[in-house]
Amino acid sequence: MKTLDAYNFSGKRALIRVDFNVPLNNKFEITDDTRMKATLPTINKILKDGGSCVLMSHLGRPKGGPEDKYSLKHLVGPLSIMLGVAVKFADDCIGESAQAQADALKPGEVLLLENLRFYKEEEKGDVGFAEKLSKLGDVWVNDAFGTAHRAHASTAVIAQFFTDKVCGYVMQAELDNAQRVLENADRPFTAIMGGAKISDKILIIEKLLDKVDNLIIGGGMAYTFAKAKGGNIGKSLLEADKQALALELLEKAKTKGVQVYLPVDNVIADDFANEANRQVVPTGEIPDSWEGLDIGPETVKQFSEVVAQSRTILWNGPMGVFEFPNFAIGTNAIADAVVKATEENDAFSLIGGGDSASAVNNAGYGDRVSYVSTGGGALLEYMEGKTLPGVAALD
Asked: Which among 354, 375, 376, 390 is annotated as catalytic?
């Protein structure tokens, strides 16, 4: 795999697949620019070499054609400020106008293309569409780890049209950090798994059982474990058909000598709302009309103690409904524990994208852990041992 540092972009026009799929509010303002900031070193290296950049990305999930709310034009101003360069914008990602603007680029200039997913051919991995995109650059740089698990036109199929294919800094860092956790972890190694469903995390949990010393399970999926063990979970999230699997995973962990930590108490609510009435009850003792929305104080204490003794920490998925401030206490407390272990005990901490990345960044902890992944689904699939099309395309 050719890395960015091993390539001189002088006089070259780099076509870069970036992941600018950032959240926007109803005024089209970026509410989390982590993914954009992550790509700046790649763009700056190319510009410093004396190259120019054509940036391509998707944004959101447009349904069959252009939609103003998903236009990448909303990112031009913020990106220009970040780069200190007046970013040009092409109102299409293929066609005569986009081609003319790309051809006219001078060294040090940047062009942002319109949303790739305004064409259904992008997600279909259409070869003809990929070829049209390829004409916009001399060298292809893939820096979009967050979409590397998709065999889309811009993330993988396009590679066949380039002699020079280069791995960007974000992609390289994601792969290096994932490998460090999977193959070179200092012990004790603790994985913290949260989120709504066991079904989303089965493969990664099974893979981790061969790697970790401790497995902490929180979030919505913990209620399926509680129910499977005979507890009452009220209206809490439940994957009824995964109860046997939950018990099976606990048994597998036991045979492999992995210590599993499940919540011992929960913060419950009488409605799915931030202002709902709430109380703390032991796990498995949730009244029928209530639901669990966060881990309780005793669980926070136990989980934090395990984290404090860890030398490697992988965290994917929140401990509760962290979007509601009243039920974000558990998630924030675990973030605090991970930061302390990183800063005070020199632990290596990898935050696994998606909601956990948002939770850590929202708490202001993004630069106080070892690495925050920009690719939730891609990181999970990589750690599950799957081949990612966007990575394979760089080989």
From this structure: 354
